[in-house]
């Protein structure tokens, strides 16, 4: 148990200041301020949010990437999609600088039975915290413009059969070929209803622009 508490504290430290909850505090969406600062608000849900209570993730985090000059994806920030005290079924709301992003890792932190979904790694990073890793392509990608509140949908992870290995094929370090595929669908109605009740002004301001899943 003590080890789990230390792990959660470490994850919180790595996630920085970007957490769940409404960036507007439930008030009016500051569109002009967001535009002036070239920022946006993203509304997102994942299948990990739907885990039953007894199997609930204590924390859900995601690593976001942007393309480098070679076209590969480099992690630019880690966001907390669900915190230890987030029990309401409300989609995650995150304030981000405007731009194009990829989701390259989604993690469910639990004392037992956690889960990690990783995009295929082109270059490994730090052995301690994974920083500096480079990915071939994201699990899913999305774009946000200054001043927008964008509903990018729900991301789930569909398992699929692994391809049979060939005698001459060398394993790719850090990859899980054929292990899963990202699937994008609308945020479930119940979660949107709860968002409308919890944060009505943000709900009304949102526009739907689903993220695009990529093959893993």
Defining key terms:
216 residues; alpha+beta; 8-stranded antiparallel β-sheet; 5-stranded mixed β-sheet; 37% strand; disordered N terminus
Structural account:
This protein is α+β, with helices and mostly antiparallel strands and 216 residues long. It has one domain (2-213). The chain contains four helices and 13 strands. It has helices spanning 2-15, 31-36, 189-198, 200-205, and strands spanning 39-46, 59-67, 73-82, 92-97, 99-109, 115-118, 121-123, 134-135, 140-144, 149-159, 180-185, 207-208, 212-213. Strands 2, 3, 5, 6, 7, 8, 9 and 13 form an eight-stranded antiparallel β-sheet that branches. Strand 2 (59-67) and strand 3 form a beta hairpin. It is globular. The two termini are 34 Å apart. The model is unreliable at 1-17 and 166-178 (pLDDT under 50).
Mean pLDDT: 81
The portion of residues forming beta strands comes to 35-45%
Secondary-structure-based class equals alpha+beta
Oligomer type: single chain
Distinct helical segment count? 4
How many domains would you count in the coordinates? 1
In brief:
This protein has 216 residues and is α+β, with helices and mostly antiparallel strands. It has helices spanning 2-15, 31-36, 189-198, 200-205; strands at 39-46, 59-67, 73-82, 92-97, 99-109, 115-118, 121-123, 134-135, 140-144, 149-159, 180-185, 207-208, 212-213.
